[in-house]
Amino acid sequence: MSGNTPSSSRGVNAVINDERYRSIFYQVVVFGLFIWAVLSLIENTQINMATRKMAVGFDFLKNTAGFAVAWTPLDYKPSDSYLMVYWVGIINTLILAGISIVLATFLGFIVGILRLSKNWLVAQIASWYVEVLRNTPLLLQIIFWYLGAFANLPRPKQSIEILGFESLVLNNRGLYIPKPQPEDLFWLTALALLVAVLIAIVLNKRATRKQQQTGKYISTLVPTLLVVFGLPLVVFVLTGMPLDWEIPALKGFNYRGGGFVLPAMLAVMVALVIYHSAYAAEMVRAGILSVSKGQTEAASSLGLKQSFVMRLVIIPQAMRAIVPPMISLWMNVVKNSSLAIAIGFPDLVSVFMQTSLNQSGHAVEIVALVMAFYMTVSLTISACLNVYNKKIQLTER
């Protein structure tokens, strides 16, 4: 009798024993189980809500909210819908998180470099700054800044004039600033600013490319400043300076007119910046230490100034180690901004997941929308920084 195995059996065995096919099979099974679990959860939730006669769907977003919001740059009125409240919360959260990210990153770079200072006192102060703030809960820091600092500011009649300007004052009601009022032709100035930024980017890229080709450093600071500030200024003047200012003025017991920022927002912003700058400082310090000491010695042997060594040699190489953990830091700033609810700042969690939820009763839908916002922002930050991180990584030849 012949012991030959049929070709079809050999083909099946080859597929079963192939690690690639087994991997694909396992992934399909796991993905199918995940989809089944999600659908089962959705079905059970709908059944339970229907049993309790709870409303389901997003139609409630068209209903009138009926409550005021303490602060928002949008033109919001209590007669607006819950959908408008959702956008108000998003804008407030993005403003708070965006400013905090920029300031925390900038302050973190400074503190991280100071930690490596040869001056013992400076290094110790920076070290204590990092250790104390990193080991203190953020919520406590927010409450401290709100109750211990901004809530104890003087009343409006005894307001603190910042830099001696009567139109820039700080009191226990908030920070009052002049509010710009753009006129018809101001869009030309904004367009000129955009063009100037693009020109500055081109100038810096050309200078960098020439430096890589010839080794000659070309300073672009002065040309960049002249372009970025000079071009918009010329257009602004030629178009008749189409910008007016609404100045805040003390009327009665409070300031009227102009723009203002709530004390709660100031407290949350200061806490977010200081807290996360401590983590950013450690990332910067670790990134700088990851660069070989020989790079510093080689740059110094070429006669470069210490400021140039740090800015042109050390920091660009350190960014390869700084950017990956910085992605998580930026995402944490956005997510931790939700702690503003503790002191009443009207962010997304406060105005939508608290007030709107209590009024409408649509808990599942509101929580889903809030989660979708934070997930979208986090994924966007991760995608953008990953593109930059991939660009600065070393490329093997």
Q: Write down the CATH topology of the domain at 49-130 and 264-397.
A: MetI-like fold
Global shape: globular
Give the percentage of residues in beta strands: 5-15%
Helix/strand-derived category reads alpha+beta
CATH architecture call of the domain at 49-130 and 264-397: Orthogonal Bundle
Major sheet details? 4 strands, antiparallel
Widest sheet, order of strands: 1-2-3-8
Please give a structural write-up.
By secondary structure, the protein is of the alpha+beta class. Helices cover 66% and strands 7% of the residues. The chain has a four-stranded antiparallel beta sheet. Strands 4-5 form a two-stranded antiparallel sheet. The termini are far apart. The model has no long low-confidence stretch (mean pLDDT 88). Helix 4 (120-134) packs across helix 8. It has a domain at 49-130 and 264-397: MetI-like (MetI-like fold). The protein is built from twelve helices and eight strands. It has helices at 7-17, 19-51, 82-114, 120-134, 138-149, 186-214, 221-238, 263-289, 293-301, 306-336, 348-360, 363-392; strands at 160-161, 169-171, 174-177, 179-182, 243-246, 249-251, 254-256, 259-261.
Write the layout of secondary structure elements.
Elements: H1 7-17, H2 19-51, H3 82-114, H4 120-134, H5 138-149, E1 160-161, E2 169-171, E3 174-177, E4 179-182, H6 186-214, H7 221-238, E5 243-246, E6 249-251, E7 254-256, E8 259-261, H8 263-289, H9 293-301, H10 306-336, H11 348-360, H12 363-392
Antiparallel strand pairs: 1-2, 2-3, 3-8, 4-5, 6-7
Helix pairs in contact: 3-8, 3-11, 4-8, 5-8, 6-7, 8-10, 9-10, 10-12, 11-12
